[in-house]
Amino acid sequence: MSDIYDIDFDKPQKKSAPKLSMWDTLSIVTLIVTACMAGYFALIFVNPNIILNPFPPKAAEASLPTIPPTATLPPPSRTPSATPYIPPTNTPRPTFTSVFTPTLFSIITPSATLTPTATPKAPYSASVQYVASSKYRPEFGCNWLGVAGIVLDKKGAHHIYVQVLLFGDLKGQPINNITVSGTVPQYYGASGFEMQLSETPVDTTKTLYLQLRDQGGIPLSENIYINTYSSCSKNMVYVTFKENK
Question: How confident is the model at residue 48 (pLDDT cuts 50, 70, 90)?
Fold first, then answer.
């Protein structure tokens, strides 16, 4: 009789798949997001004007302001650089006509004496007011002395991009300033201009003068001589240039 062995072989157990930890999940998500972002930036790099780009170059260029080609505005916060002093051209005085000794008899009728031609009037004239700077710039208080104003055409409309020059002497300090109408429209109007002389008001009498010129440097006004005052109620020289009709 043969021996019968009852051998109970253990059945192999299935191994369960390892569970992902929180850090593994975050790493996988980070890799996926990184891949998506890399693909997104690659698309924008290849085609910047793609609809997915929130800042396409064409839209940025279209939003840029257009500046008139003939105007070059100086930075409003900086004092314009000084230009060489150009003295105005003196108008030559008319010469005297020689007086001839009358003859007792002449068969030629004497010609009429010609009337001298009047000197042409400048295209622009100016009116000057002395006011407190607080009327337009209250933030300065009395710690300011300067010149401000506007430029108007024949119809009273503001004329911008016209040169305004200020020359002369302020208590021994030479003054040679230049600005352009329209640099400070927020305070005086579309053609407003402003030039500071000092932080302390002082008295002077016609040691300074203004002149209006076009962009080519041709004078548009006579020399407008001004005074300055130490009083806080007159520490701003307000000038209105207006085109003559």
Answer: confident
What pTM was estimated for this model as a whole?
A: 0.53
- Range 137-149 average pLDDT: 95
Spatial separation of the C-alpha atoms in residues 140 and 187, rounded to whole Å:
13
DSSP string, the chain: --------PPPPPPPPPPPPPHHHHHHHHHHHHHHHHHHHHHHHHH-TTSTT-SS-HHHHHHHSPPPPTT--PPPTTSPPPP----PPPPPPPPPPPPPPPPPS--SSPPPPPPPPPPPPPPSEEEEEEEE-GGGT-GGGTTS-EEEEEEEE-TTS-B--S-EEEEEEEETTEEEEEEEETTS-HHHH-TT-EEEEEESS---EEEEEEEEEE-TTS-B-B--EEEEE-SSGGG-EEEEEEEE--
Question: Is the per-residue pLDDT at 126 higher than 60?
Answer: yes
β-pair type (204-213, 163-170)? antiparallel
Domains in the chain, start-ordered, CATH in brackets?
A: 22-63 (no CATH), 124-243 (2.60.40.10)
Q: Which two tokens stand for residue 72?
A: 């070059």
pLDDT, tens digit, 9 for 90 and up, residues 153-181: 999 999 999 999 999 999 999 999 999 99
